[in-house]
Amino acid sequence: MTASDSPTITQFTDPMCTWCWGAEPIRRRLQTAYGDRLTHRFVLGGLIEDFETFYDAANDISDPEDVGPHWLAAAERHGMPVDTEIFEVDPAQSTYPASVAVAAARQQGWEAGHRYLRRVREAYATEVRNVNRPAIQREIAADLGLDIGAFRAAIDDGTAREAFEEDLARTREARIGSFPTYRLTGPEGTRTLAGFRSFEELADTLETVAPSLERTSPPAVEQFVREYGPVATQEVATVCALSHGKATQTLKSLADRDTLVREQRGTGVFWRVPAESTG
């Protein structure tokens, strides 16, 4: 089955949206549960063009400094780490420059786009790095092994901005009102689910539009961290189908044996294999 005829889940998203960051564990469980039988796509929806003219009435947000409390409240629900120091030292005034950078990475293929989007989310949410800064955008691209010349050219010649504008048009045409929103497509039709959704909600809907789609068993904790790390505790719990407490216990046990390394970031913890184990 090719990507063109396989069931597809498309996320309308923004690289700085905390609920999209909170959906990373669910996205990764979908990846591990369905593998290459499910195609993943994303559309960049443009959360904030400019804080000078932005107001989120539902959350009473009109300035970057208002976002920190919203992040903390959201993190209590979605479980992913956040570090609100970014809003004290170097807050983004728009989510558009980071979105253009993601569009530039996506021109090197969907895999590159997904990996870059993940790292941009992680850097802004947990590493106190303003991913609108061109130097940081290029650093992330280099760390991921992207073609830096092509990445810079896509931004400089306007093709990345054009691709982002096409995504904005798709978002408007689809009348998307919240991020994330999911469009799930299969042989039995298309369904749309708006807002933060659990793995079970998305999986059940996928299996409705694609009845032949079958889930595989969750991976072992060490296997998942080795393949995807660094990963947050919540990601391990979600992907490996464990309680948060059991996931923490297992991760600590692996760290005690020097199999994994623990890294505190903001409100939570990330886990990865030691550097000498990745070479």
Indicate the CATH topology of the largest domain: Glutaredoxin
Helix segment count?
13
Gyration radius (Cα, Å) is 18 Å
Biggest sheet character: 4 strands, mixed
Number of β-strand runs: 7
- For the record, the CATH class of the largest domain is Alpha Beta
What ranges have pLDDT less than 50 throughout 5 or more consecutive residues?
A: none
- Annotated CATH architecture of the largest domain: 3-Layer(aba) Sandwich
> Which range best describes the helical content: under 10%, 10-25%, 25-40%, 40-55%, 55-70% or over 70%?
40-55%
Number of domains: 2
Which strand-content bin applies to the residues? Answer: 5-15%
Structural class assignment: alpha+beta
Structural features, described:
The chain is of the alpha+beta class. The chain folds into two domains: 8-173, 3-Layer(aba) Sandwich (Glutaredoxin); 221-277, Arc Repressor Mutant, subunit A, CATH 1.10.10. The chain contains 13 helices and seven strands. It has helices spanning 18-22, 24-34, 67-78, 86-89, 96-106, 110-126, 134-143, 148-156, 159-173, 199-209, 221-228, 233-239, 244-256; strands spanning 8-13, 39-44, 181-186, 189-194, 231-232, 261-265, 268-272. The strands form two sheets. It has a four-stranded mixed sheet with strand order 2-1-3-4, sandwiched between helices. Strands 5-7-6 form a three-stranded antiparallel sheet. The model has no long low-confidence stretch (mean pLDDT 95).
